[in-house]
Amino acid sequence: MNEPAAMATVLGRILYPYGACVAFSAALGCLLFTWLWKKQRKGKIADGLLFALLAVPCCLLMARAGYCAVRVDFLAVDYSPSFPLRLDWGGYSLVGACLGLLLAMGLFKLALGVPITDTADLAVPAALLALAGIRLAEVFTTEGIGSYVDNVALQWFPLAVQDTYGDWVMPIFFWEAVTALILCGGLLVYRRRARRGDAALTGMLLFGLMQILLESLRNDDFLRFGFVRVNQLLGLGLVLFAIAVWLSRARPTRTLTAGVCLAVVASTGLMVWVEFALDKSSLSNILLYAVLCAALFVLAALGLAMRNRGAKGETARAEG
């Protein structure tokens, strides 16, 4: 991995490899959405492109705003007041990008009257494809890396990459990209038989779970509140939202609702404890990550069980 190096100058602005890859990845995501829009909804290509034209600036500006909101104290001291407007200086947040995508879906609904759930089923796979490329682009930066890899036998890609000092570190960016790409492919297959909104919710659930795990491994300049990582909060929020929606659709009994809430609270508490223990205790990291994975598995199983329960209930009501 290298420090950012300039590629060229375009319209008076310096073009970096990272920026070029981000733009290319965003374009791929837009093309995928447009193709899905035309194929699944048999809609006009112009309407699919309209969403793309809404999504790109919304995600870009909200991602910038999210970064500045988290780093406001730091920026106020070390940067000029014009920093938020200098998009070429870098500094974006995944949370802000997700909010921007939601904003674009809302604007798209206002423009064409398309339900957000319908748009989300197409937008989430497209966003995951774009994110996969953006994560891979971090190879041109000093971001997306984890702890040192001291075992010489493991010092090879994709298990390790060299940082700017020549040390071998974990390429977390690569595994985040692979995860996003796999989820994208899985959703493209699943959406063909899924209920309205279930493809998007499934993507949110699984992506959120993987964010909680993989973000825990990062040792770079990630966004945080104290020791709480912002992207992990995003992941947890996506997971809880998906489970809550599916639970409401499943028409659960009070006992089931109480059981689900108890399992969610217990799993969340366990994950918080693991994150604290990783920084403050002498317990084995392997043991702690095993506990974290167990908690994530419980949430995944719980969410998918509620999804399937709701789907079966809906089928039974339709047949009845």
Number of helices: 10
* Structural class by secondary-structure content: mainly alpha
Shape: globular
Number of domains: 2
Evaluate the radius of gyration.
21 Å
Termini gap: 60 Å
The average pLDDT score comes to 89
Q: Helical content, roughly?
A: 55-70%
Give me the strand/helix succession: EEHHHHHEEHHEEHHH
Strand order, biggest sheet? 1-2
Largest sheet: 2 strands, antiparallel
Share of residues in strands? under 5%
Q: List the uncertain runs.
A: none
The count of DSSP E runs of length 2 or more, i.e. the number of strands, is 6
Which key terms come to mind for this protein?
320 residues, 2 domains, two-stranded antiparallel ribbon, mainly alpha, globular
Give a short overview.
This protein is mainly α. The chain is built from 10 helices and 6 strands; from the N terminus they run ββαααααββααββααα. It folds into 2 domains: 1-142 and 179-191, no CATH class; 194-217 and 226-320.
Task: Record the SSE blueprint.
Blueprint: E1 8-10, E2 13-15, H1 17-40, H2 45-70, H3 72-78, H4 94-112, H5 116-136, E3 161-162, E4 168-169, H6 172-190, H7 198-216, E5 224-225, E6 228-229, H8 230-249, H9 254-280, H10 285-319
Antiparallel strand pairs: 1-2, 3-4, 5-6
General description of the model:
- It is a single chain.
- This protein is mostly helical.
- It has two domains: 1-142 and 179-191, no CATH class; 194-217 and 226-320.
- The protein has ten helices and six strands.
- The chain has helices at 17-40, 45-70, 72-78, 94-112, 116-136, 172-190, 198-216, 230-249, 254-280, 285-319, and strands at 8-10, 13-15, 161-162, 168-169, 224-225, 228-229.
- It has a two-stranded antiparallel ribbon. It has a two-stranded antiparallel sheet with strand order 3-4.
- A hairpin with a 2-residue loop joins strand 1 and strand 2 (13-15).
- Helix 2 runs antiparallel to helix 4 (94-112).
- The protein is globular, with a radius of gyration of 21 Å.
- The model has no long low-confidence stretch (mean pLDDT 89).
